[in-house]
Specification:
The complex is a heterodimer of chains A (119) and B (111). Chain A is mainly beta. Chain A has no helices and 11 strands. The radius of gyration of chain A is 14 Å and the shape is globular. The chains are: A mainly beta (119), B mainly beta (111).
């Protein structure tokens, strides 16, 4: 079974440039997460989707970040414009327990991440 | 915000020795999970322990949970070079699906 796929693996851009990350979750997984992980820290949730609905985007900096999951499968996360402080690893994860069941126990499967460097 | 705090921040041991990492958290939880992250790779789920469980085993891994002290420990027995990685604990609350992560323990196994 293929795992969570992310691309690109690395991205270097100058500040004020736009950037986009793509994620393909594990087949059949309804729930998709985007996290940001700064060096030496654990992941921080940016947004969570159940199917195509963003059910929690409270920690997404909406002035410059946007995300979509149009058909409830693949997802893209965009930053426009990027700032120096956006340099981090952006992780995508998926799980197979949507809705209320997700509150019972949620094992998340992570992709390799995209390492973003903003110069 | 991060709830879990791992201790120690870094640990270096000889291959074959046991490694113990600790995690403390602040609020009540439904479950606690341990993940491993190798350099340049994504996070891999290792083990989940529920709030009504005290101990759980998986291969060379042993996890304990003390809800009265709001702490958990991960023991890796007979360590191998391939165990070199960062280990994170993550907690999930009753009424919230969200996983709250600690900053991780960096484990180095010396050959």
């Amino acid at each position: 079974e293929a795992g969570v796929v992310q691309s690109p693996r690395y991205k270097i851009i100058e500040k004020k440039q736009p950037v986009a990350f793509w994620c393909n979750p594990i087949s059949g997984h309804n729930t998709l997460y985007w996290y940001r992980q700064n060096l030496g820290q654990g992941p921080e949730l940016l947004i969570r989707y159940e199917n195509e609905e963003a059910v929690d985007d409270s920690q997404l900096p909406k002035d410059r970040f946007s995300a979509e999951r149009l058909k409830g499968v693949d997802s893209t996360l965009k930053i426009q414009p990027a700032e120096l402080g956006d340099s981090a690893v952006y992780l995508c994860a998926s799980s197979s327990l949507p809705g209320l069941a997700a509150r019972a126990a949620d094992t998340q499967y992570f992709g390799p991440g995209t390492r973003l460097t903003v110069l | 915000s991060q709830q879990g705090e791992e201790d120690p921040q870094a640990l270096s041991i000889q291959e074959g020795e046991n490694a113990t990492m600790n995690c403390s958290y602040k609020t009540s939880i439904n479950n606690l999970q341990w993940y491993r992250q190798n350099s340049g790779r994504g996070l891999v789920h290792l083990i989940l322990i529920r709030s009504n469980e005290r101990e759980k085993h998986s291969g060379r891994l042993r996890v304990t949970l003390d809800t009265s002290k709001k702490s958990s420990s991960l023991l890796i027995t007979a360590s191998r070079a391939a165990d070199t990685a960062s280990y994170f604990c993550a907690t999930q609350k009753d009424s919230n699906y969200q996983l709250i992560w600690g900053a991780g323990t960096k484990l180095i196994i010396k050959p």
